[in-house]
Structure formats: C-alpha cells, structure tokens
Amino acid sequence: MTFPPYRAHVVAEIPITTRAERERALAVAGYNAFNLPADQVTIDLLTDSGTGAVSARQEAAAAAADRSYAGSASYYRFRDVLAELTHYRHILPVHQGRAAERVLFSSVLAPGRISVSNTHFDTTRANVELLGAQARDLPCAEFTELDSLEPFKGNIDLAALEALLTGPEAGHVGMVLITITNNGGGGQPVSMANLAAAAKLARAHGVPIFLDAARFAENAWLVVQREPGYGTKTPREVAEEAFQLVDGCVASLKKDGISPMGAFIGLNDPALAQRCEGNLIATEGFRTYGGLAAHDLDRVARGVQEVLDPNYLAARAAEAERLARLVNEAGVDIVQPAGIHALYLNAGRLLPHLPASRFPGHSLACALYLEGGIRCVELGSLYLGTLDEQLELVTPAPFELVRVALPRRVYSQGHYDYVAEVLAGIAKQPERVPGYRIVEAPEFLRHFNLRMAPA
Ligand code: F0G
C-alpha cells in the first residue's frame, strides 16, 4: 500500500461556482481556458508547472535565503545540489525553463540549423524557431499506438535520427534534445537504452546532445519500474546516470523542483558555458542568481532533494494510475500506459460526432469546465493543426487529446474522484458536447491567445 509521505500543513480554499457563473466566465474568456481567472476554477489541472505544494522545509530554507547580489550562499546551495545530481561542471540558474532554452539555444543554434528531438515542448519549439532554426520531432513509432502498453513510448526514433545524421541534412543538425518525460508525446518516459543509443549516435556525428529534464525524477521512477536492469536502482541513481549520458541539460525546476519558480542550464563544455554565461548576465541576471530571487534558489535546492524520495514518487505514480483507472471505468480512453505528470484523454474517440475541424479535444476541455469547474488543456488540432486565412482547420493533428495535468502534492483522492465523476457524466451522453470554431487567432503560439465560439 502506498500513501503520500506528507500531510497538509497550510491549505488554500478552492472556489466553488455555479453552472451559470461558469457559462459566463467561459464566454468572457472567449472559450479559452488560458483566459479564465483562476478564482473561477474549482480543480485546476491546466499544468503541473509551478503549481506544486511546497514543503515546510522548503519554506524554512526560503526564509533563511541570502539575498546578496553576487556569490549568495543560496546560489552555492542551489549549485551544489544540482552539481551533485547531474555531475555537470557548470550550473547556471535561470528564472524558468524557457529562459534556459533561449540562453542555451542561442549559443548552439543559428538560422538554418536543425534541432532534433523526441518531441519539442511548445516553448522549446518556439525558442528554436525564434532563432531562425528548425525544430524537428522524431517520436518513436510506438507512440502512435495510443492504446498499446509499450513501456517507453517517449523514446526518440533511433533509425530516423541516424538517417538524419547521415543523410543530406547531416551538416545542418545543431543539436539533439531529448525531453524526459516526453510532455508533448503523451507524458511518456524515455528509456535509458534509448537515451544511451541517441547519445552514441550524436557523439559519433559530432552533434551535442542535451536533456530537457523538466521531469527528470518522474522519468527515473518509470525507468526503475519498467526498464530491465534498473529495478534495483534508486530514482536518484537513474537520474544521475541519465544526466551523465549527455553533454548537458536545460531543466525547468517548476516541475520536479517542486517550486513556484526556477530552472537551470547544466553544461560540461567550458567554452559553451562561458558563452551562455555572457548571455545570462545580459538578459537574466548575474551568474549567481540568473533572474531568481534568493528564496527561489533555496526552495529549489530543497525541492530537488525531496522529489527523488522513492516514497513520494511511488505515491505520485499511484495517484496517476488510480485516476487513470477511474477515467477508464468512466468510459474514457487515455494514452496508455498512464504516465505520472498528466493523463492524456482520447477526446477524438469519445466525441466521434465532432470532426477535427470542430476541435473535439477543446470541446471536451470546455465540457469539463462547464460541468465541473475543472480546467485542463487541449493537445490536438487546436494546438498542432494548420489553419487557413478564414481560421478553418486545413491539416488536423494526428490525435485529439486533452491533457489533464496533476500538480504535485496538491489534490487528494477526493478531488480526483470528483474529476472522474464529472468525466463519467460527460461520457454518458457525449453527443451533447458541442463543437467549437475559432473566432480570432494570433499567428504565433496561438493556443494561448485564441478566442473561440460554440459551433
Ligand atoms: N520543457 C518542458 C518539457 C516543459 O514541459 C516545459 C513547461 C518547459 C520546457 C518550459 O518550462 O514553463 O519553466 O518555462 N511546461 C509547462 C506545462 C508550462 O504546462 O507543461 P517553463
């Protein structure tokens, strides 16, 4: 039996709203959950980023932080914890993951270069494209079998990677980036065997390889559970090995750092670290705070140690598995097998009366809000499809999914029972869920800003 190795210490109220209030709020928000004021949201499953509950020890460490501009003791604690975990020689703090991406990529990529990944997260892709470079996703073939129980559907397609590194575009590849766990790819883990093979290929062709390690501890936990040869290792040992297989990392610490803010770049190459440091000082902050407040550095230093506790990871994985079971019992399919940080609901299958052009994933996300005040986000044609000038869908995404993210240490079984109940209510009469059309959409990162209407 597993249970969370912590108890609530300070709690926050959650808003309870009426159906009429939710209808009004969603209409005012242009049917876009990113525009909803949080005080209109009952269960917020939009993201697991920066939303985790901090521990009393993190708060104690934060209270004792050293706010010196240069050389603060908080920085040395941050650096030592991350250097011991990753074994990288250079640890640069930045305020969040996308800043790490911008700083590192601008030292590695240039117009016309290619960044190749199992899947770039959306800000990661945006930071590659802002440099005039190209983001190329090579997810493994197993990912497209949403129902299959393959253990490592987050892997990169090694044959496709090799073909790229030996083909006509080989000279243009600027870096390989492996996202663990693969957030854009169903939250699925990457195996150590896949990571090692990708690193070997990259090295053989003189291309640097980095981790996007936002969920390093959760990936390590799934490796311990699923990969032959790793069953007796600790999540910490697996995470250390993963970091050492590659040349460096970018990592948002708003996820597995269990902190409201923070991230870092880890590197071995001194020349690359120096280039990044120059950029960091010009755009984020001095190298010993990188845009973070001292209390953030200390919260992260403590959070990174807490997240690797096997009892915590076992309870967190069990929570996701339990919700996955309840969701399946409610008649809703998810991307299998359940990962840890989120469940990805198969909205396309649940709402067959809605064509991709009416955005079934978005429709399900709106229904969850209207029925239960639950906020989550579409990962389907609204996010990935291409539109014409009239904002009609031209190329749909391969799947119409909804990501239900699970904040760390925040909600308990009762909350998740409620989520499953709301979903079961929708799944009883799925044909009643209306579709949506796009009314207004910016060109870049449109899902954050677009406005929709029922259609
Ligand atoms: N990489 C991955 C894999 C991520 O999931 C995220 C953020 C980032 C980079 C960027 O980090 O937010 O600190 O700037 N993911 C959040 C999410 C926003 O909801 O999945 P950040």
TrEMBL record:
Source domain of life: Bacteria
Keywords for this protein: Antibiotic biosynthesis, Pyridoxal phosphate
Coiled coil: none
Domain Aromatic amino acid beta-eliminating lyase/threonine aldolase: 44-421
Chain ranges passing through the membrane: none
GO MF annotations, alphabetized: lyase activity
SUPFAM superfamilies: PLP-dependent transferases
Pfam families to which the protein is assigned, alphabetical: Beta_elim_lyase
InterPro entries: ArAA_b-elim_lyase/Thr_aldolase, PyrdxlP-dep_Trfase, PyrdxlP-dep_Trfase_major, PyrdxlP-dep_Trfase_small
Reported cofactor(s): pyridoxal 5'-phosphate
This protein's record includes keyword Mitochondrion: no
GO-annotated biological processes: amino acid metabolic process; antibiotic biosynthetic process
Name of this protein: Tryptophanase
Native species: Amycolatopsis sulphurea
